[in-house]
Amino acid sequence: MTSIATAGASVTEQHAAIAGGRPWQRWVLLAVGLTVALALPWFVYPPVAMDIAAWALFAVALDLLLGYCGLLSFGHAAFWGGSAYATGLIAIHFGVPFPVAILGGALFAMLLALPIGYLSVKRSGIYFAMVTLAFAQMLFFIANQASSLTGGENGLQGVPRSFFGIEAVETDSFFFYYAALPIILLGMWAAWRIVHSPFGRVLVAIRDNAPRARALGYDVERYKLIVFVLSAGLSGLAGGVFAVSHGFVALPELHWATSGEVVLMTVLGGIGTLWGGVIGAGLIVLLADYLASSGFDGIGIVTGGVFVTVVLLFRRGIWGTARHLWLTRRRRVGSS
Amino acid sequence: MNAVLQYTVQGLAAGSFYALAALGLAVIFGVLGVVNFAHGAFYMLGAVAAAVLLDTLGLSLWGALIVVPLLMLVFGMLVERLLVQWLLPLDPLYNLLLTFGLTLLLVDLVKRRYGVSGLPYERPDVLSGRVQVGGVGLPVYQLFVIGVALLVCLGVWLLMTRTRVGMIVRAATERPELAGALGINVGRWVTPVFGFGVALAGLAGVLAAPFRAITAEMGSDFIIILFAVVVIGGLGSIVGAVVGGFLVGLVEAFGQAYAPTFAQVLIFVLMAVVVLARPAGLFGREEATA
């Protein structure tokens, strides 16, 4: 049975994913990615550009867990939304510059991830998905109840965008994008470093054959817990940026639909590719923005339809398919 | 004492919906290995179908209790044939994702057609009012729900343990390879079993129609609690699903009565305790997990 994490990718493709292709390919990709990231607010409405960047990091964080450790979390809204609330509360009550608040939010997400992860990594596969989902929803109920702190169904209003008194950043979404982008890029770089470290190799070993990894002396549950907490921290960075960018935190950020949305982005882009999540996030955010602005009120019909189609017909995702085509072409050229 | 009786009945009534739907979830998981995320949406469709049939054809609750599960059976079999079956040979997580997408689709379709405000549903006069038991007025409808749920659970249990079909399905659930080796065509049961599980969710929906607000979102919290139920009872265990369902219903009712702030959280605390103490669930067997 093929694991969802490899989505039918051949060993060569998986190797390419880990090695990141040849050095020049890596630099080209990096240059293209950076250019797109820097140019984005010129082409799309800056708040939407910020949404894309935040969701992209969120999807990369999920892929770190799903693609490189084989664990499908259906509860990542807990860390995205949990950090959004924590970031918002820190920004409101302490008036610190927003990067500090976001860092606090990410730390809070990691703290949350410790008990949730500890309980969840006891199971794998479908059980892991269900247990993470249930615990995340517990957090949703708690946030709804604790309305004196979180604002309940009204959400957390008035999250300030304090940034060392630089007014352009604090008031203009265009400049705010450039002030917050380093946080997103830092998170992505961290994910990339984790995947390409010896620690990342152990994760892949656990994903592919957990009993063997255990027999080799690796404490499988501990590795899973560590990557779970790291993934939660990166999701927290993304959620914090999202909260500051919007200036308020809504209760649905914690709902399971949010967990599902980030899974959709990752699967659409391609599981186990890191880059794929960025593409998936960009497409879904733009699609949602387009549908919302055209007055169509059944976005679930479209995203649900995309989900069903991708899972049935297109399991490699966009980046996975591109990589598959590239590698088969190269092999054909190489053998002739 | 009176209050305890009242909360017990209330909890068992709420638990009846969980037990019926979780039973369907367990049967589907047992035979297909699929965790059906759309189970909450199917429950919602059952309730919406009952309301629409009452409104358009004047079909009473009694009729709906028969007709809607049959419709859901057919619908479930279609979903299995058209969508779910293609992913059965792959990682079971794919079908979780597929049914998740299906949920988004169904919920928003219903929302667009019937709006976000609840649909009305009048319960039959016979089932309204209260009955006096030991000086406590218990709502007739709650007792009726508990009765129906117990009957259906008993029926499914008899079907599973006393009939040939049940034995085949159990064999297919517990040892698919061995059942196949003994000449049982396991694949033949996949579609009807999926339809049957969906019909149980639909039945729970019909029973909930006069009791809960009928909205497109009514399955959205339901499915999460259902997941907690099967994690507590043990995924794939039929007894575990029923016991877990009633247990969670009771926790919910007593929680709401004595600690309303923590009522919903209590269920997940219970789940956490079970995961810690017995990772396979109360009635689940410890499988070889990687």
UniProtKB/TrEMBL annotation, chain A:
Which InterPro entries does this chain map to?
ABC_transp_permease (IPR001851), LivM-like (IPR043428)
Record localization: Cell membrane
Annotated TM spans:
26-45, 52-79, 85-114, 126-143, 174-192, 225-250, 262-287, 299-318
The entry lists its GO molecular-function terms as: branched-chain amino acid transmembrane transporter activity
Write down the superkingdom of origin: Bacteria
Any Gene Ontology CC annotation: plasma membrane
Membrane topology designation: Multi-pass membrane protein
Q: Which UniProt keywords apply?
A: Cell membrane, Membrane, Transmembrane, Transmembrane helix
Write down what this protein is called: Branched-chain amino acid transport system permease protein
Automatic annotation (TrEMBL), chain B:
Q: Which UniProt keywords apply?
A: Amino-acid transport, Cell membrane, Membrane, Transmembrane, Transmembrane helix, Transport
Any Pfam family the entry gives: BPD_transp_2
GO cellular-component term (any)? plasma membrane
Record-level Gene Ontology MF annotations: transmembrane transporter activity
UniProt xrefs under InterPro entries: ABC_transp_permease, BCAA_transport_permease
TM annotation in the entry: 12-35, 42-72, 92-110, 131-160, 189-211, 223-251, 257-277
The protein's location, in the record's own words, is: Cell membrane
Indicate the secretion signal residues.
none
Q: Which CDD domains match?
A: TM_PBP1_LivH_like (cd06582)
How does the UniProt record describe the way this protein sits in the membrane? Multi-pass membrane protein
Which Gene Ontology BP annotations are present?
A: amino acid transport
Family, similarity comment: Belongs to the binding-protein-dependent transport system permease family. LivHM subfamily.
Name this polypeptide is given: Branched-chain amino acid transport system permease protein
Per the UniProt record, the source organism is Nocardioides albus
